[in-house]
Each structure stands twice: as C-alpha cells, then as structure tokens.
Fold this protein.
Amino acid sequence: MFIIKNPYELQCKIKELKLQGKRIGVVPTMGALHEGHLTLVRESKKNNDITIVTIFVNPKQFGPNEDFNSYPRTFESDKNKLEKEGVDFLFYPDINDMYPDGYATSVEVESGIVNKLCGAKRPGHFKGVTTVVSKLFNITLPDNAYFGLKDYQQYLIIRKMVKDLNFPINVVGVPIVREEDGLAMSSRNKYLSDEERKDATLIYKSLLKAKNLIESGEKDAQKIKKTILEILTQSKFSKIDYIEIVDPENLEEVSEINKSVLIAVACFFGKARLIDNIVIKI
C-alpha cells in the first residue's frame, strides 16, 4: 500500500493508471476506521482495479463548538486495517496540503435537501463536506466513490453535486453496518461510556418499532414520531436533536405515510451525537 500526502503526487500516479485502463474506486473517510468503513473498502475492491482510501479530518465541516480537536485520530491502527484489506493507495494529507495559504474556494449545493435534518442543525456543515469531497474527487479521479448510508443526507447531497457539476463518477451508497446489538457503527461511538453505549441501542430499537407500526398499517407520521420519542427518552443520557419522517429523495416532511419514507434520528448520548435512519419501502 502506497501512503501519499501530496495531492499532486497522487493525482499524477492515478492519471498514469487511468491511461492503462485501470478502474479507480475511492472511499473518503476521516479515519478512526471501523467495520463500516471496511465494508466500503471491500465494495470498492470488488468493482475496481485500484482502491484509494482517503483519511482527512476536514476542519471545514465542523462548527465552532463541535468536536474537531477531539475527533478520534488513530492513524497507525487505520493504516494496519487498510493494509490487511489490500488497499492500493492511502491518501493522508495535512491541512496545509488541502487548504494552503490563500485558499479561498468553496463548493456548495444550493438545494432544499441541504437545509433539512443535519443541515438544519449544523449550519455550514455540508458546504464543508462538498468542498472537501470535490477536492478529493479531483485529486483521486475515481470512477466510483463509496459512501455509507448512515449519512443518508450526505449521500444525497454528494450525488446532487456530482450530477450538477458533471463529475464522471458513480456515487455508490452502501447499507448501514451495525454492531450485534443494532447500534450503527460510527467513529463517535468511542465517546460513549459503558452506560451510554448500552442506552444508545434505543435508537435502532425505536426505528424498528416505527417500521413495525408502519407495516401494521399506521399512517400518521406524528404518532410514529411520538413512539420514537417515548423510546428514546427512556434513557437519562439521551438528548434528542431531531426525529423526522421524510421523503427519501427530497427529504420533505411527510405527514401521512402512503409511500416509501426515510425515518431519520439524531440524538446525543452524553457528548456523542449519533445519527441513524431506516428506509421503509411501501
């Protein structure tokens, strides 16, 4: 596995490989890798000749009171995991490599999907995401890019950006990977105490209860949201950020469920802000 920090050096190597007809897959990450990330890597390796993983904790997607400084950074462990998976290139730039002195450009999707869910709670977050991902796409020149559907809104926004800017890239959404007890895998799970970790399983339990209600014929979105709220507030550690039932394509709120919906939850357990979702097809 080649570890490269300089964007231009990686770009040159990938250009050479593409001239040889190689198919390129990229998995953008912020490190602190877990099985969810490795699932993305395996999907890339199945469908591409070359797999690139990027590790960059992007300051532009963190708000002023968020966890940029404390976000877990586990490079040696991450490197070992990626070597075992047979990754071809690890792109590991410094902040100055990505945002050198005088940097003054951003990429922003101006669409209603940005201002829903996490976008409504974290102003500027997705502008930071689309800026860094567009740079990573230009550096790695992928044919396919892999994103986990735990960050469902991010997946929709990246897909919109790719379409609008004519990136010749297929954006692949990969299903959520869960722990045995149902908790969605996340780098932020490391923030949880043992008690908080146990209670965090209420998120997925509430989503499954909502799914069962809908499949049993319940159509009132407010009643379902109330049920989710009742389950989540069983924990003394929980602080709900949002519970939303929306259209899975445009993220518009749904009041009566007569077609497929996305149920999305963001909830703090202690200092860890966890997100999860489930798509219910009708």
About this structure: The chain has ten helices and nine strands.
